Amino acid sequence: MSENINVALIGNPNTGKTSVFNQLTGLKQKVGNYPGITVEKKQGVCKLPNGTKANILDLPGTYSLNTTSLDESVVVELLLNKNNKDYPDVAVVISDVENLKRNLLLFTQIKDLKIPSILVINMSDRMSRKGISLDVSVLEQKLDTKIALVSTRKGQGIDQIKSLIADYQNLSNTGNLDTSRIAPEYFNQLQKAFPEEDLYKLWLVITQDVNFLSIEKKRIQDATSFSTKSENELKKLQHRETVLRYQFINNALKETYKVDTNAATGFRATLDKILTHKVFGYVIFFGILLLIFQAIFDWSSYPQDFIDEQFAAAAEWMKSTLPAGVFTDLLAEGILVGIGGIVIFVPQIAFLFLFISLLEESGYMSRVVFLMDRLMRPFGLSGKSVVPLISGTACAIPAVMATRTIESWKERLITILVTPFTTCSARLPVYLILIALVIPDGSFLGISYQALTLMLLYLLGFGMAILSASVLNKILKIKSRSLFMIEMPTYRLPLFKNVAYTVLEKTKSFVFGAGKIILAISIILWFLGSNGISDQFKNAEEIVGQRIENDGLSPYSQNYIQNNIDAYLASDVVNDQDANGESITQLRLELAERAKAQEIASYKLEHSFIGYAGKAIEPIVKPLGYDWKIGIAVLTSFAAREVFVGTLATIYSVGSDEEETIKNRMAAELDETGRKPLFNLASGISLMLFYAFAMQCMSTLAIVKRETNSWKWPMLQLVFMSVFAYLVALTAFQILN
Amino acid sequence: MATVLDLQEGQLGVIKEFSDTALPVKLLELGCLPGNTVKLVQIAPLKDPIYIDVNGSHIAIRRSLAQQIELDIDEDSTSV
């Protein structure tokens, strides 16, 4: 089976292209990226009735081959490049029966590329409800193609697509429109200059150079000598081309496609009136937002706790079962903890994408954009910025990718730059532990101070995003016409299968994409923390052992032992006779042994590579109220914020990530004067503010680099956000202290 | 000259021409072409953007863009 047929699925957005793809390929699909850019590339394999196999490529949705975004350029680049290994033997153009006229525009363009094409008319189950009648065989003649009438919702017509693909060699490959009709003189000249080349392809190469981004574009050949016409003139020709195409389409549909407008229901109009109402519209939107927050922060805590426990248990099991040694340590303390740090975010990511894909599939997202556009504009943002800002509360990475739909480069860039201010889920564990430590109990209007603080931190993130957007709007001198335009698709019940695939895919790409980085950092951290070259490090056992013999255990350890014994005595397992018996002595010995091990680990860490690094940065973080250990945690957080708790856990030599234990340990930590807790209101607030503003995420920087195609913007983010965070944290600490 | 902005909600108009030739090609491709009918479906709560139905395509555009689409208003069409 070496010679598979290459099939490309092409179609307008909202035509159910993904559903067709899912039904053709089932679970046999893989998602990757186009080389060098972050446009998703979905491929799958489909078995055809004649026994051969087809490689199905799901191309990004596009309205036409005149591209306005990166996603769309991918389509044109592939279709113009015969040497591309994915170049299709046959193109399957997906259309929606309700919007057939508009969908055919793209179809005629594909036809004109002389690629054998099949037309799929989807959502045929809606025909009778919408009063549509269609004469398929006549339309096939008019368009010079084969048509499959499909309903992905009911699973009808998929087999017909397969047999049409298998039979692709019998498809016509002549075009629909004679390109030279657009401007006979100009095109005749062009043809004379390139007698070997196809006119429509030449035309695309000339016009499609006006690119959304300066992404390196593989020119098919050098036709620039002919783009002597001004941009405006070219645009006029494109208008003329569109008019000609619609003439052809109207002619083809005149006898074959009829709509009885009376049958169209008012469901859409009614729903639109409610969902974009000046009061209810916003109320419903914020209600949905609240629900999403609830899901991300509350519902996902159950599976998260479960995952956390399982990983802790697995690490424990590994340590007790595998032979002790460097390899086991690396596995249990480095790799396993690292993987746990990735997997623990899976529930949140899954919930977020579940909601986002439900909102998108149903057609609601467009209404939100419609509602919010005017509100966002004074800040230099677009209605379409709302989607990234919302998804930024889970993770800035998919959020930055979601800015691709924004037409205006300036609005898009601003959205990309400010999105990392929104409180992403990685900040949450940091906030939670600090709030529990430094914010006093008590309540205001029935809401606890702690909950209020958390809410304020979220508002702070959004506020900062909006504020810096309006500053950027004033500073950035980018001329970019806003050609805001969004389709308001028909409301549809989301297809379970599509939603499930989206959630699965996004979660997978999170685990394997961002996961790799987190994993690498965990391993590096583990290595730096458990190795050292100084004599203190090498002789830690003797030094600490000596100290304990001379001075006894540290006050912290003695506290630890006493607390555990108190807990033991208070528990039900102990009856009175036992109270002073052997079991207590036994327990005391065990605890002392454990405390000693912890003190050794702690001493070692202080003299490991990471310990020295921490001491080196201490002068920088001291004015913010942090000691060297927090400094290290902050520093490692620049790779990914969620490392903070884990790093402190390691540094404070608490074996597990269990929050209660690490919280107690942090609460017991004293500042250098030895009188005040290290984590007090001043240093705690200072830390939270630092995390709220600092750009501590390598993956986000990497994605911003890819999306803006320049190091300038991510570097600007890194420097500006971090310096700002430092100054705010400094001010807060100095005032509160 | 009347533009899309002069339509009442629910009112129809027939596109005549565009005051700016730099109108995005995408808009034309969605069916916004001279001779086609536009219906103003709804105006956003803050007056902008506006939601139109042109040639069966339901799209939202900003006022600045809508202003460039010139048309003949069908005065009798103010149904719903």
UniProtKB/TrEMBL annotation, chain A:
Q: Where in the cell is it found?
A: Cell inner membrane; Cell membrane
Annotated FeoB-type G domain ranges read 4-171
Looking up CDD domains in the UniProt record yields:
FeoB
The main location class comes to membrane
Query: Which PROSITE patterns does the entry link to?
Result: G_FEOB
User: How is the protein disposed in the membrane?
Assistant: Multi-pass membrane protein
Q: Which of UniProt's keywords are assigned here?
A: Cell membrane, GTP-binding, Ion transport, Iron, Iron transport, Membrane, Nucleotide-binding, Transmembrane, Transmembrane helix, Transport
Q: Which domain of life is it from?
A: Bacteria
Reply yes or no: does the keyword Iron apply. Answer: yes
Annotated TM spans: 279-297, 335-359, 379-401, 413-439, 451-472, 510-529, 681-704, 716-736
The record's similarity note reads: Belongs to the TRAFAC class TrmE-Era-EngA-EngB-Septin-like GTPase superfamily. FeoB GTPase (TC 9.A.8) family.
Q: What does this protein do?
A: Probable transporter of a GTP-driven Fe(2+) uptake system.
Question: What PANTHER family does the record point to?
Answer: FE(2+) TRANSPORTER FEOB, FERROUS IRON TRANSPORT PROTEIN B
Q: What is this protein called?
A: Ferrous iron transport protein B
Q: Which organism is it from?
A: Flagellimonas spongiicola
From TrEMBL, chain B:
Does the entry feature the keyword Iron, yes or no?
A: yes
Q: Which superkingdom heads the taxonomic lineage of this protein's source?
A: Bacteria
Report any Pfam family annotated for this entry.
FeoA
What InterPro entries does UniProt report for this protein, alphabetically?
A: Fe-transptr_FeoA-like, FeoA, FeoA_core_dom, Transcriptional_repressor_C
State the coiled-coil residue ranges.
Answer: none
Q: Which UniProt keywords apply?
A: Iron
According to the UniProt entry, where is the signal peptide? none
Q: Answer whether the UniProt record assigns the keyword Iron to this protein.
A: yes
Ranges for domain Ferrous iron transporter FeoA-like come to: 2-73
Tell me what this protein is called.
Ferrous iron transport protein A
